[in-house]
Amino acid sequence: MIVADKKFLAEIDKKAEALKERILNSKTEVTYTGTAYYVSPNGNDMNDGLSPETAIQTLERIHTLPLAFGDAIFLERGGTWRGSISINQSGITLSAYGEGKKPVINVSPKNYAVPHEWVKTDIPNVWKYMYPFGVDVGHIVFDGKYHGFKRCVGHHGFTEKLEELQHDLEFYSDRHNNEFLYVYSEENPGARFKDIEIEIKICGIRVRCNSDIHIDNICVLNAFFGVSSGTIKNLHITNCVFGVIGGAGSANKDGTNFTRLGNGVEMYGLCTNFSVENCWFYDVYDAGVTHQRKGPCDVPVIMENVTYKDNLFERCIYSIEYFCDQQGNDEACMKHIRMTGNICRYAGGFGWQRPNRVARHIQGGWLRNKRMYPAEDFIVENNIFDRSINTLISCSALEEKHLPVMRGNTYIQYKDGLYGLCGVPYDHYEKFDDGIEDYIMNSLGEKDAVIAVVPEDDELCRVSPDPEKYYPTPEGYSL
Predict the structure, then answer these.
(1) In this predicted structure, which of 17-31, 57-71, 357-371, 377-391 has the lowest mean pLDDT?
(2) Long-range contacts for 5-9 (Cβ within 8 Å, ≥24 apart)?
(3) Residues whose CB falls within 8 Å of the CB of residue 241, separated by 6 or more in sequence, listed in order
(4) Which backbone phi and psi does 39 adopt, to 5 degrees?
């Protein structure tokens, strides 16, 4: 085991920055066989969209296009749209055209920094947004860098009384009263900030078809999920950016068990040929990427040819998550899974808001109820797992043959933090102490692993509720 000194960590920073630059500067190199449609902020919805000169303007207009298998939709680089996209037709490519930054889909309905729309309540320093949202408010970003702290009943002692909002930028979405929003601030939030972006329970890109979708060079911000899909064949996500994702939630009909959600890219169901490559994920409440399915299903749950390659994950609760849980069906299986070349940093993100405060770079294996995680030809190699507020990885299965093969990975964690495990049903996690090198290299057999300990807590992934100590949203794609 080596010490992750300043020089060592500077090299990791350099690798992460190089990958980020490659993602941000990726060119449009997609193929399609049908008709191309163009969307520009300077377009006109009366146009046909068949050329950049006759581009349509809005995301809503996309949903009226006569799309067919093989068609492509191109958003103009440098443009920003508020709203979301639903892809209902199989065989569609969504990408970018022109020069400059990736086109941005900002799901926040508007900039809420409007002073007269914030009303002072009878509670000291608590402001109410005058219009109801009607859906849960999951997260708020102020001036592109300060994150609000969502208060939820039963979490951290909150009982839904407005008097309990006592710290700067705490907020509460009143699910009993049409989701009116309350924010703690000594000044009117609309006057104090120039920009207030609010994530509500709406996905950025919803895939509602079952085959052949390619999403490329798109940036999605302030969304419930970045890309959400169900059972599908041939779903490919490349060269995209997903930032400030998740935090909204839902409760049972009786109001209990409020659960907050939000993944950067989620495939929920059966899949063949699902890949996410060369994408940047930051500040994600749940998983950066995930393939998952649990519970009863009429057919065996097969997840085949899943690839996560050359992605950058920063401050996600889980960088990568997976589970295949179909009890009682021996045919269910994850086959030919590859997680390779990813740089996963600072697992935690919004973790200080979660009641259990879990965080890890790979999450696969909640086995308390003896769930199944069957897999074959599952390889995790040449990734960098760099620091976590909780554990680095958690990979479990009921049998060793279903565990991933770990090769050539780099593990960086705080002294006396947790490594986690890659094993059969567990009752503890391995500490990142003097014995971790023997555990990884000998017990797990990953002889070519790089293992580095960070001697002091640098707080990069231990986010404080104090807004002045928040780490700003990365520049370039914060609005």
Answers:
(1) 357-371
(2) 8/452, 9/412, 9/454
(3) 23, 24, 102, 218, 219, 220, 279, 280, 281, 477
(4) -130, 125
- The sheet carrying 232-238 orders its strands as 36-39, 72-76, 92-97, 211-216, 232-238, 271-277, 302-309, 333-340, 375-381, 405-407
Report percent pLDDT > 90 for the chain.
74
**Per-residue model confidence (pLDDT) at position 272:** 97
How many alpha carbons fall within 13 Å on the CB side of residue 370?
2
Spatial contact of 432 and 418, defined as CB atoms under 8 Å apart? yes
- Cβ neighbours around 217 below 10 Å, total: 26
Burial class from Cβ neighbours inside 10 Å (0-12, 13-18, 19+) for residue 307 reads: middle
Q: For residue 146, what pLDDT band results from cuts at 50, 70 and 90?
A: confident
Answer yes or no: is pLDDT of 284 > 70: yes
Whose structure tokens read 């050329």?
51
**Which residue blocks in 117-199 are alpha helix, DSSP H?**
189-192
CA distance 305 to 331: 16
Whether residue 450 contacts residue 411, with contact meaning beta carbons closer than 8 Å, is answered with yes
Q: How many CB atoms lie within 10 A of CB 289?
A: 31
54 in helix, strand or coil?
Answer: helix
The pLDDT score that the predictor gives to residue 475 is 38
Measure CA 232 to chain center: 20
For residue range 174-226, list pLDDT tens digits in order: 988 999 999 999 999 999 999 999 999 999 999 999 999 999 999 999 999 99
Residue 120 pLDDT? 97
DSSP character at residue 348: T
If you average pLDDT over each of 242-251, 327-336, 359-368, 376-385, which comes out highest? 376-385
Tell me how long the chain is. 479
Token pair for residue 114?
């409007």
